[in-house]
Fold each of these.
Amino acid sequence: IKLLYYTISLISFVLSFFIDSIILLLASLQVVLMIVCFLHELGHIIGCKIIKKKIVKIRVFSISLELGKMKILPNFNFGGTCTFIKDNRSSKLVYLLGPISSFFTLIFVLFLFLIFQLKILLLLLIVNTITLIITIMPYKYSDVYNFYTEVNHG
């Protein structure tokens, strides 16, 4: 019960710290989620460019770029993907550069937050930290899972 109390206290502190209006908080959160997701996927894109893999599709939330065509998907999609053509070359770098990009974004945003102490930077810091933790967990089809699968099975 103490854990529940501390969790609720932390959530209410964070919510009161951010913004007075819940609508503004949700709008800010949506923008921050899209930025964090884009920067993470940008890491995968850079990995594809470095090892010269052909990118088929990039999706961040409901915005999708497919072979030069941009689509706005009619449904709400959370997260992002960077789909590339798999060949006999290793994809380990592609899988690792998403979380690495998230890590460097975290360090950069932390630096900015320590200087400017803006609420939006704190929100960006929290969302990016959560994204980094989720993408480095070895659950099926996560970046780290795909990396380990390729290391172990070539």
Amino acid sequence: AQMVSHNANHLINVGPLPDGTFPAEADKILAELGKLAIPNIEAITGAHSAAKLFTCTQAFPWGELTSKGNNIYLWIFRKTSVIDLYGIRNKVVKAEILSSGEPVKVIDERVEEYNYCRLIFEDLPSIETPFIIKVELDGAPQVFERIYDAGFTRF
């Protein structure tokens, strides 16, 4: 998540043994990686950092953020029911747990003067972290840049 959300990639330097198998430790690590990556591949492949959208330097306390097309992907590592996104212009169309497609009820509270968006997720399913919430927007993500020029931060 951190690599994708910061426009980096990660080389996993694991080679096979002479008999063509992988070492047991490598199998274990790759299996764990696959548990998160495979059901959430949409938030990884072709996705890019949303840092160019949200240019303030503070990290999100709940996880990471990536985007692709009309979607933003909230990589939740610490469960939360409220996510503040300052300066976002888009309206939320829908939200769902990416791995299952389970709908997530979201309230899009706005203060139009500042293009402030607070996403409130009600009744999040009992799911272990990490997980990804896919938020579909009414267009490619756009941010009202003046918010950051004024020195506001996300938290």
Amino acid sequence: PLPSTAMSFDAFEARLQFLQLLRKLNASAQSIQKVVSYAVKYGSRCGEDLWEVVMEECAKGTLNTRINVLYFLDSLLDVSMSLGPPDAPYMAFVAKDLGEIVHRVVPDNREGVLNLRSAKQVRGVWGICLHVAVFRIWGCHRLMSRSWRVGGRGG
């Protein structure tokens, strides 16, 4: 069961349930969608906590878990692009931690070779990089627009 209402919302409970979902995650679209839906539903209230769970699972999980997290992130960012940061704060988190995520999914050792082929075939690696680039450009544009208005030079 998910935390039901804002009144009974408990970030710790949400975090534990998200961890359970991530641990059951597989490469199926249905499994990925279930985890994405949960992350989006609770992103505005405890997105940072949920992101910590993602990073912990990337660090501790099996190689298979890590590649499944990459699939999950690709779908999560697709959804996040349409929602925006207040409801889905994950773009900033991925932008900050992308290098670490890739290193954990494809570690620089013999084990990493096992995930390398899957990671290259996954639209996710390139899709995530594209999403991050768009996010950074969008953020820079907003910052420049705000600076331009504050400086009195724009409309």
Amino acid sequence: GVMYANGSGVPEDDTEAVHWFRLAADQGYDVAQFNLGKKFTFGEGVPEDDAEAVRWFRLAADQGYANAQYWLGEANYVSRKFPEAAEEFQKVVNDFPDSPKVPDAMLKLGFTYYELQKWDDARRTLEHVRKQYPDSTAAQLAETRLRRMRKEGH
């Protein structure tokens, strides 16, 4: 599936990629489940379907795939289901502490607290991102949100 998704040695073809991802995902392969979730998220090779994307992300996350756990948070965040998003992003931080997705998950957790108007939690989380991951894009975005919060009086 990845070869068709990326056009590696074969013509790029999202429909064919979905076919191969689904075969592997149905066999329980977590990376294929994650990739299938992304295809449903963006409507690549299949109609866009958020519920189907979440279903595949959940299957992969339940097998310990950190990136899928992160995307569960993203799916809830963009759907404005902020309590659920916070829970999913917190799982990335707690359950996958060595994952490269942790800085982004912490950033999005801070953004989620902001949306929930939990100002102290948002500030504390965003400051932690800035201090813990100072050279990251997440730290830059955290600083931008912290400036916005100060400007807004939070």
